Structures are given as C-alpha cells and as structure tokens.
Amino acid sequence: MISTTILEQIQQEETPLYYYDLPLLRETITTAKAQADRWGYHIHYAVKANFNPRILQEISACGIGADCVSGLEIEQAVAHGFQASEIVFAGVGKTDREIQTALKHGILAFNVESLEELKVIGNLAREMQLEARVALRINPNIDAQTHHYITTGLDENKFGILMHELEACLSFIHTAASGLTLVGLHFHVGSQITDWTVFKRLCLKVNEWNAWFIARGYIVPILNVGGGVGINYTQPDTEPIVDFASYFAIFNQFLTPEKGQQVHFELGRSLVANCGSLLSRVLYIKNGVNKNFAILDAGMTELLRPALYQAYHKIDSLTATEVTLEKTVQYEVVGPICESSDCFGKNIQLPPLKRGDLLAIRSAGAYGEVMASRYNLRQPLNYYFKE
Length: 387
Ligand SMILES: *Cc1c(COP(=O)(O)O)cnc(C)c1O
What we know:
Layout: H1 4-11, E1 17-21, H2 22-38, E2 42-46, H3 53-61, E3 65-68, H4 71-79, E4 87-89, H5 96-105, E5 109-112, H6 115-127, E6 132-137, H7 163-173, E7 180-186, H8 197-215, E8 222-224, H9 244-254, E9 262-267, H10 269-272, E10 276-287, E11 292-296, H11 305-309, E12 315-317, H12 322-326, E13 329-334, E14 343-350, E15 358-361, E16 382-386
Helix pairs in contact: 4-5, 5-6, 6-7, 8-9
Pyridoxal-5'-phosphate is lined by residues 46, 48-49, 67, 90, 188, 191, 226-229, 266-270.
C-alpha cells in the first residue's frame, strides 16, 4: 500500500506518524457522493471522525456538507471550506455559546435531543433575532448489532427525544414566536454497523415515524438517517472503499419519503477510516515467558480505539523482506504508555521483528488522531500526506 519511494521518505521521519493517503480519500468521497447523487441523497461528513485541516479541505472540496458535534467543529468546518448552510449540529449537551456560534453561522439544522434544549435554542435565537432550524432526533430503538459503547439508537441510551416529550416539543415549536422552524427528523443507530439488515430496519422505522408526523399535519422537508456504515478493518487492501452503491440502494428500496422530502446521511468512519495509518517503529522486543512482546513507539495516546473498545486494527510490517515474510512469529504488540490496556493486539502474526522496524497500524483515519491525548506528556503528532 505504501510505495518504496514514499517509504524511503518516511524512513527519514520521526514516528509515531499519521500517514494519510489523500488520493484514496478523494476516491472514497467521490464514490460515496456519486452513489448518493444517483438517488438525490445528501451527505454530511461527520467531522468528529477526523478534523485534521488537510482532511477537511479535501472533503469539503468534493462538495458535501458537514455534521458537527461542537461549536469548534462548526468553526473548523467553516474555516476549511464547508458551507454553513450544509452543516447540521448534533449532540446531547450543546452549550449556549455553541448554540450561538451555530446561529451566527446560519447552519442548516440543529439536531435537537430534548424539550429543554429546544427551549434554550428558541430563547437564544429570539435574543439574536434569528430563526433556528431544528430537526428532532428520534431514538429508533434498533439494536445496531455493534459494540455497546458505539450503540446509540436503543431506548436505554442517552440519545434522542423521549416519546413522552415529543408532542410537547411539537407544540412548543409551533407556539407563536418560538424562534424555531421544524425542518426535519433525525435518526442515528450507532457506528461500525456491518449487518446491513440494521439499515433496512431503520428505513422501516423512519417510514413509521414519518407517517406519525404526517398524520399530525407535518411533512418535514428533511429525513436525516444518520451514519454508522462499518468498514472492513480486517482487509483494508481488498476492500478499501465501502460498497456505497449497495448501501444507498437499501435506502432507495425501503425508505418511502413523500414527494419533495430530502434524505440526508451523516457518514464519518466510512469516508475516512481506510485512508489513514498510524506508523510506528519497534523500540524493543521482549521475549516473555509465554509470549513475545513488540514494544512500539506509538501507544493508546496516538490511537485509543484498541484500548477503549478492544477494536481490531490490522498491523503490517513495512520493513519485512520477502525472506522474513515467509516465517511469522506471534507477538503481543504494545505501546509505551503506563497502562496495561495500552495494547494494539494480542496473538498478532508478523515477520520476525527487530528494533527499528517500521509497522503500519491500518484503518486509523477515523476516530484515530481526534482521540489522541498528551497523557504521559507525549510528543505532538507527526504527519505525512501522500498527495
Ligand atoms: C458519530 C455520528 C455519526 C457518524 O458515525 P460513523 O459511524 O462514523 O458513520 C453520525 N451521526 C451522529 C449523530 C453521530 O453521533
């Protein structure tokens, strides 16, 4: 995946280093957009997956919108080319200042999660003499069949407006001078969803909710079905880009919007995960009693997902030769941080490693550098962009 010319350049660089394949990123975004365009669908990139300025510039240049979860994400998205009129703002805990930021920019919609939040947004909008466009986040109560930390669409989760508050939300929006305009319904079931029947079930739920609103006289302009498309972490080279054609086809088949209702998506991981790798050098090899440890110069401070939710990332040796590739050794690949959870993988088969060898921890473009921390007073991140 990394050419020998680039590898030679990288050998001069300090590790740990985030490597981004920008041509692959562009191909991923243009593929997703082309497939969405077939059905007239709109995509918002979930900025929380990766807010690196270079990545944002590449994505905004492809002409899609953004999905933000903080005021600074809104500022960052606008600063790097996204149109404010294409930005949606989600999150259960929006502060007054963040709401004012969003109002000032005139974003497309607030995805609202409670009656109290709705009232606060209305008040702030009236103070600023602006109108706030809101979409109501409905909890579809669907099991995303993914890790429980990244399941969001079940009744037991903190997300979405509670059923018993919904009627009150609607009447509040429609009181005179509420400062609010209802523009949509919003759904999101979770992340890294690989069982695509989940999306079919989501469509059916959205249809039901849409009918519920229509029965009350509201044909909202936007049905926002969220994101959560899973990527192939085990084989990033055979399947670098998600099958977006099939993904959007599910919505075309099962979602039944009214004439004129737009369908919006919020894709994060599936747009950026596979364009990034965390490159790291082997510091030490420690042959323990029952296993071999490969101790890297990158740790959970650079890529938290394995420590946070035992996430799998493929690990490749970039310095293995054809000879060493033949006979692999089993390693526990760990970082230098003073935590036992600082482990990238157990029972990892790799060519025999030695101090100085370069490894690539793959599919680290989403929820990678954005979750980095300075714990143990680590160095700031280093980058390489393949142009
Ligand atoms: C995180 C998030 C997304 C993006 O999820 P991915 O799994 O990265 O596609 C979309 N919408 C909402 C509301 C989110 O919280």
